[in-house]
C-alpha cells in the first residue's frame, strides 16, 4: 500500500466512525485528519479525580480570589529568568517568578487573538479591533506594565491555505495583509521590577500550520549565509512585501526590525540595559523564532529570548546551531497532548522505519531548538481529558496548565489563581461541573446594534480604531 | 422493500453523501432526515434577480427608514380582520392593515424564542429570562400596545425527544417544566384602535415536532366527546400535570384557560367587547389550535382566532369540523418551501399510491384547518434560495415574507419596512450582499461577565427575573 492510498484508507475509517460525523470547525477537522495522517494514538486517559470534589465549593472559592499573586522584584536575577543559563534548574520545579513571566508573555500572545477581527462581514476583517493605545486597556492587560509601540502586518506571496482572514467587502481596509502582531515596551515601573527595559514582540498564530502539512514535507528554504534552512511557509509570511499593498510595502520582518532597532537605540542611548523577548503561539511561535534569528544577526550583544507556546518545528539542525551560537535563548512550552509541536517533520523524525523512502532527505530534517517546558492536560482536574486536538492546542489551555504547573512530579497547584473560565474562551475543555459555556468569547449580537430607527446594523468603527498603515 | 428498510437505505445514502457530513444542529439534522424520509424534492430555484441591484444603496436606504408604517384605525372592520368571514377576499391581495395584525401576532410568538433561556449551564434553563412586566420592554414590543398578564408552563408525561430544555444543574428552578408561552391583553389605546379588548395568547414552538415523525404515524388520540382526534405528542404537552412539580401542578391547558376566562369575565363585566387571538409557530401553532378548541368549548360566543406560522397538522377531519362548527377561525401562514406544515400525515395524504398498506387507516387521517396564507421564499430578493430547511421553517423568515407579501402574483413589496436583518437572528438565509452575520442573536460572552476580582462568572439573575410559579 503506498502512502496516499494508506491515507485514504485511514480517512475512510475516520469518516465512517460515528464519532467523527459531529460538527467540525476547520481546527477540529484538520486535527482529526492530522491525527490520522500522523498515525497518532493520543491517549484518552481517565480523569485524575479529586476525591469527592465539591465543585460548588471550588467554584465559590475561586470566585472570591484575586486572579494574580502579588508581584515580586526580579531585577537581581532577570538574566537567569530570561534564559542566560538556558533555564537550567529553573523549569522543574518552576519558580513562581518565572511562571509569572511565562504567563505574562503568553497573555501578550493571546491578545493577538482576542483583539483580532475575524468577521468576514466586517470591512476591517483581518485587522486589530482597537488602536495600539487602547489594546492593553481593552483586554485588561495594563496590569503587566507595558505599552504598545507598533503594529506589525504580514502578507504572503504564496497561497497558504487558511492563514489570511479576508473581508467579503470589495472596499476593505486591506486585501492582502493581516494584523500579525505588535511591539511593546516595558514602562518605568515594570522596568525597575524586571531589572531592564524589555522590548516584547508578540506574533499572532493561526490554526493554519497543520493545514499545510502536505506542503511541509520538503519545502525548506535557505536563511542566512550558511546551511541554515527554514520552512518555506513561515518564511514567506515573515518576509513577503509588495509595493501595491497598503500595509506591506515593507515586510513583517522589516517592520518589526525597524521598530526594535529604534527602541534598542533609544533606550541604550538613555544608558539603560535592554532585552528583547519574542513570543507567539502556533504559527506565531514559528515567526517568533525567525524574528529572533534576524534580530540576533543584526543586533549582536542584545539579550534575546523566545517564549513560544505550541509552536511547530521551524528549521533544520544548522538553523538551530546558528541560533545557539548567537546566544538566542528559546523556551518552548509544549503540551504533551498537542500535536502541532511535533510538526512538521514528524513523519521524518518519529516514523523513519515506516517511510524508508524518505530517509534520503534526512539532511533536511526539521528540529526543535532550545529548552522545553512540558505541561500535561492530565495534570489539571479542571480539564476534560477526552480527545480534543483543537482544545489541546489552544493557547488558553497552555496558559492554564502553566499556571497550575509546579513540577513534573507534582500535582496541579492548588493555589493557582488564574481564572479557569478563560480556558473555554474558544474551545470546550473545562469539565461540565464548572458550568462554563464553551467557546464563550463572543460579541453581543455579533457586533450588530440597533440604530436610531431600531434597525440592526453594524456600527462603523470609531475613527481612532480604523487601521492605518502608519500605526 | 418494506418501509423501515427503505428508510434505512435512504438514511444510509444521506450519511454517505459528503454534503451531509457538514456541521449540523438538531434542526438541520432533522430537516435533512425528514426531507429524505418524506421523499421530498425541494426545488432549489435560481435567484429572482433584481436587475443590477445596488446592494450598498439598498442597505443605506433601508437603514434610514422607520421599521413600521403609521398605524391605522381598524375598529370599524376588526371582525373581518379577525376572520369572521374566513378572511374571504382579504388574503390575495393582502391589505396592509391585516398584514400589520399578522406580523403583530407573529412577533408575539417570536418573543417566546427571543426571551427563552436555552443555556444548559444556567440554573434557569427552560425559563423566560425576564419577568412578565419586563418582557415586551426588553424585546422592543411595547409598540404593539399589549401588556403581559400571565406566563404559561408546560410539561409532558411522555418522553418526547428534544422538546424540553433542561439545566445541567441539580438545583434548578424546575426539573420538569418549560416556559411555554404567555397571555397578554391590549391596552386602552390599542383597544380603541382595534375595536375590541383583545386577549392574545402566544405559544412557544420548538424544532422538535419533526423529530417525532416516526411516532406521529398512528398516535392520534380522542379529544372532546365526539370523533375528534388529535396528535398524541401535542396533546400531552398541552394537558400534562403533576403534583410533584413546581410549575405544573396545573396543566398548560388549565393555566391558560383560567387566565383567559378571568380576563373575559373582567372586561365583559366592564361592558367591553372581547376577542381571543391565539398564535404560535411550529409546535406552538399546534398548541394554539388545541387551546382554541378548548376555549371554543368553554367560552361560547367569544370570537376566537388562531394565527399560526409553519404549524404541523394537528388532528383528524372530525377535529377540523368541530372547530368550524364552533366558529373558530384559523389563519395558517405557510411558507411554500417549509416542510413542517406538511407533517404529520404527509405520507398518508400525499403519497397514498406509495404506501397502499396504510390506506386502511384513512379515517385517522390528519388534516389542516382554516384558511391559508401562502408565502414563498422565491418572492424575496433578500433571501438565499438554496435548500435550507431550518431556515425555511424559521419564524423570522415567515415574518419577513409576510412583510413583503402583497399578493400571490405580485413581487416582494418594495416599501416593506420591517428590518430585514432580523431574518438571520437564528439562521443563515440572507444574501451575503447584505453583510448580516448568520445566527447573530447572541449574548455577549454567552452571559459571562467579569466580577470584582476580574473573574469571568455567570451573574445570578436579578431577583425580579427569577421564575416563580405564581407569575
UniProtKB/TrEMBL annotation, chains A, B:
Lipid metabolism listed as a keyword: yes
Keyword Transit peptide: yes
Gene Ontology terms: biological process: lipid catabolic process
Superkingdom in the source lineage: Eukaryota
Protein name: Fungal lipase-type domain-containing protein
Residue ranges crossing the lipid bilayer per the database entry: none
Gene Ontology MF: a single term: phospholipase A1 activity
GO cellular component: chloroplast
Location of region: Disordered: 1-29
PANTHER family with a match to the protein in the record: OS12G0614500 PROTEIN, PHOSPHOLIPASE A1-IBETA2, CHLOROPLASTIC
Amino acid at each position: 500500500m503506498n502512502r496516499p492510498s494508506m491515507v485514504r484508507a485511514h480517512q475512510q475509517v475516520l469518516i465512517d466512525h460515528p464519532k467523527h460525523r459531529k460538527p467540525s470547525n476547520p481546527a477540529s477537522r484538520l486535527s482529526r485528519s492530522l491525527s490520522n495522517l500522523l498515525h497518532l494514538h493520543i491517549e484518552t486517559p481517565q480523569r485524575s479525580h479529586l476525591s469527592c470534589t465539591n465543585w460548588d465549593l471550588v467554584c465559590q472559592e475561586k470566585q472570591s480570589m484575586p486572579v494574580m499573586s502579588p508581584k515580586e522584584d526580579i531585577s537581581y536575577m532577570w538574566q537567569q529568568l530570561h534564559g542566560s543559563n538556558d533555564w537550567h534548574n529553573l523549569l522543574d520545579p518552576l519558580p513562581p517568578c518565572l511562571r509569572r513571566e511565562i504567563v505574562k508573555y503568553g497573555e501578550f500572545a493571546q491578545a493577538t487573538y482576542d483583539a483580532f477581527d475575524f468577521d468576514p462581514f466586517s470591512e476591517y476583517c483581518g485587522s486589530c479591533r482597537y488602536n495600539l493605545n487602547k489594546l492593553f486597556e481593552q483586554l485588561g492587560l495594563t496590569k503587566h506594565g507595558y505599552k504598545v509601540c507598533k503594529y506589525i502586518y504580514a502578507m504572503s506571496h504564496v497561497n497558504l491555505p487558511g492563514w489570511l482572514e479576508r473581508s467579503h467587502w470589495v472596499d476593505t481596509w486591506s486585501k492582502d495583509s493581516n494584523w500579525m502582531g505588535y511591539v511593546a515596551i516595558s514602562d518605568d515601573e515594570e522596568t525597575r521590577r524586571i531589572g531592564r527595559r524589555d522590548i516584547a514582540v508578540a506574533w499572532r498564530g493561526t490554526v493554519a500550520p497543520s493545514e499545510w502539512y502536505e506542503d511541509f514535507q520538503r519545502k525548506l528554504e535557505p536563511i542566512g549565509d550558511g546551511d541554515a534552512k527554514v520552512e518555506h511557509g513561515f518564511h514567506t509570511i515573515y518576509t513577503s512585501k509588495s509595493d501595491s499593498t497598503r500595509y506591506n510595502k515593507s515586510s513583517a520582518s522589516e517592520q518589526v526590525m525597524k521598530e526594535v532597532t529604534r527602541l534598542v537605540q533609544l533606550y541604550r542611548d538613555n544608558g539603560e540595559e535592554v532585552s528583547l523577548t519574542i513570543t507567539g503561539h502556533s504559527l506565531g511561535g514559528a515567526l517568533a523564532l525567525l524574528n529572533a534569528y534576524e534580530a540576533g544577526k543584526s543586533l549582536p550583544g542584545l539579550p534575546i529570548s523566545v517564549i513560544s507556546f505550541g509552536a511547530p518545528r521551524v528549521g533544520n539542525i544548522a538553523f538551530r546551531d546558528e541560533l545557539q551560537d548567537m546566544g538566542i535563548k528559546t523556551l518552548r512550552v509544549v503540551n504533551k497532548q498537542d500535536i502541532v509541536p511535533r510538526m512538521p517533520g514528524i513523519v521524518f523524525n518519529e516514523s523513519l522505519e515506516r517511510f524508508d523512502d524518505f530517509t534520503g532527505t534526512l539532511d533536511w530534517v526539521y528540529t526543535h531548538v532550545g529548552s522545553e517546558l512540558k505541561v500535561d492536560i492530565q495534570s489539571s482536574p479542571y480539564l476534560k481529558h477526552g480527545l480534543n486536538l483543537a482544545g489541546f492546542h489552544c493557547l488558553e489551555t497552555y496558559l492554564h496548565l502553566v499556571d497550575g504547573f509546579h513540577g513534573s512530579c507534582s500535582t496541579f497547584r492548588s493555589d493557582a489563581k488564574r481564572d479557569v473560565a478563560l480556558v473555554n474562551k474558544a474551545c470546550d475543555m473545562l469539565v461540565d461541573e464548572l458550568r462554563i459555556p464553551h467557546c464563550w468569547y463572543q460579541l453581543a449580537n455579533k457586533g450588530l446594534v440597533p440604530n436610531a430607527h431600531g434597525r440592526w446594523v453594524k456600527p462603523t468603527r470609531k475613527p481612532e480604531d480604523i487601521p492605518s498603515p502608519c500605526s
